[in-house]
Amino acid sequence: MKKFFAMMVASISCVAMLAGCGNSASTTETTTESAQESSVASTETAENTEVGAPAEPVTIDKLTIGFVPSRDPDEIVTATEPLKELLTTELAGLGYDVKEVDITVGTSYEAVGEGLSAGTIDIGLIPGGTYVLYEDGCDVILTATRDGLSIESPEAKDWNDNKPTEPTEEQVTFYRGLIIAGPSEAGQAISEKVNNGEELTWEDLDGLNWSVMNSSSSAGYIYPSLWLQDKFEKHITDLSHAVQADSYGNAFARLASGQIDVLCCYADARRDNEEKWTTEFGRTASIWDETNVIGVTDGIYNDTISVSKTSDVMDDAFKAAVTQAFINIGNSDAGKEVISIYNHNGYVEAKAEDYESERKAQELIKSMN
């Protein structure tokens, strides 16, 4: 399967910025470099894009932005409150007088996709997997860039030997999904096996209590499923004990309490929950001491900003203005602080073709059901 993905990635044009990662170290380095080069090129293109302001100011009574619940909903709403003024100001400079910006957090990833399709949400910050599932009802306009991480390896033991994971200044357009074991007895036992260099078996994994996200979550479901398929010809639905969490925060709380043994998440999720681990979650040792990586997925293309095809306000001219506005926000210090809630550091223009590997992933998931 990894060879299949490598071939598929190579076939996509460089403007796609795709950074799916192959099996060998050399493949990973080559693909990562390609993604970084195309990311820079796309950034330069985006910065030079001229958005023609309308001859007369256009009034938009209300603009609704939907976020997926990858973090605690209250935390997202609080952190993104300044986005309302930032976006209003940027759009005003582009000829659009937006009277109200409404920020909502969906009850699920699917809820945001359905809102975009229905036109009740104008703009959605959604993962690539959610975009692909709902692309009949929405258009992708931007891909997020994020800080690279101090560890970049397809091998679980490398993540354990070199922890904690720290951000770097290098900007990337991909991330990995991790399968992380916690402090439960079973979690510690499988961690020890990985760190001793022993091969895991399906029986090892099937005996654990798992936490996964919903089926459109790239890091929380889709790519861990592909990892299981590649390693064991199995799927998440084949696991005897797997429960769905409504947010990564809740999943880590369950991991800390021992209710689950392992969870599926994005690569820097432990950084996002490091403080809560010893406060809200009640642990005494650090999250880095009590958790270990037992599985690493292929590279996942970054989150999208997508816009509704059925929104009453989202015509081509306004779509271009929204695109430029978010690029400008991502280039400002105040904007970077707001979008950091999703580990975004900026945005580059995107096209539907950029997410072809995500479509292939979705097709494979469907074939496993």
UniProtKB/TrEMBL annotation:
Bias (Low complexity) ranges: 24-50
Superkingdom field: Bacteria
Keywords: Signal
Chain segments carrying region Disordered: 23-51
Signal peptide range in chain numbering: 1-18
Protein name: Phosphonate ABC transporter substrate-binding protein
